[in-house]
Amino acid sequence: MIESRSVLVAGGAGYIGSHCCKALSEAGFVPICFDNLSTGHRDFVRWGPLVVGDVHDHALVAETLRRYDVVAVMHFAASSLVGESVADPEKYYLNNTVGTLSLLRAMRSADCLRLVFSSTGAVYGEASEGLIREDAPCIPVNPYGSSKHMIEQMLADYRRAYQMNSFVLRYFNASGADRSGYLGELRDPETHLIPRALMALQGHVSDFAVFGTDYGTPDGTAIRDYIHVADLATAHVSALHLLLQGHVGGRFNLGTGVGFSVAEILSAIAKVTGKQVPLTHKSRRTGDPAFLVADASAARDILGFRPQFSDIDSIVTDAWNWHRTAHPAR
């Protein structure tokens, strides 16, 4: 019988990790936030203790796992900017792939053999214009996606060799903000479409641009599957419950199955805010596929994943409410 309710959340002071800490607490767990605060935020750590450290520090991770009697790990600690990964691939293979290897070594040494891993739809690369299933070929087109795919392969090997069970959750465009206003998407620099557009409306961004209007899509702009961060957090907790029940894990897409173009997102922002985002048009960025939309039916069947907040109006409304509170207009 598993008595401890402590879960180590690597990268728990970041955007998605902090939302998952909140969801864990609401589900009766104690999230142990492990974060080097290089991109995370100390004031996002509200639901459990903070251990300031890096996943490369194998000894500190192992000591933390033992000290808190951790029963499972959620892993969000990674660099995640596609453009930066193209410009500086070494950083991504070191931070993401090598960093995860260090974390896995620590987990084995502490006999903690359950993991929920934050992966990405970027592992698929330039997918066809249809819903992407988990058995689609993984041919990443940027080092960010490649680093995550390497980790997925490592986890499959660790399951076979060391009986380390893991859920690999490939989510698409995480978006939105905590509905109660505690947390939101805050990066420097901010590169994601929705928060960057909202920051442009507030006067915090002066160079908002749409990258590529010549994709083979109905309006020429790239199409993505947007999933509310609160729904992502719920899915992670569901995966944790299954691991604690003895499930071996697997790879699952998290998305809505509905794609929206950049132009459609900007229209939704105008509808919610009553303002038009000032913008310029630029050429495509290297490593950006035209179409990424998930088939999440496997997650629905196994994890019970049914997004509650992922309609575009709710995503934009929650993000706008948080931005207006946390970062008022200039």
Automatic annotation (TrEMBL):
Assigned EC number: 5.1.3.2
Pathway stated in the Swiss-Prot or TrEMBL entry: Carbohydrate metabolism; galactose metabolism
UniProt keyword RNA-binding present: no
UniProt keyword annotations, A-Z: Carbohydrate metabolism, Isomerase, NAD
GO molecular function, one term: UDP-glucose 4-epimerase activity
GO term, biological process aspect, one: galactose catabolic process via UDP-galactose, Leloir pathway
Span of domain NAD-dependent epimerase/dehydratase: 7-255
Top EC class for this record: isomerase
Catalysed reactions, as listed in the record: UDP-alpha-D-glucose = UDP-alpha-D-galactose
Names of required cofactors: NAD(+)
UniProt keyword ATP-binding present: no
Domain of life of the organism encoding this protein: Bacteria
Subunit structure, as described in the record: Homodimer.
Similarity-based family: Belongs to the NAD(P)-dependent epimerase/dehydratase family.
Protein name stated in the entry: UDP-glucose 4-epimerase
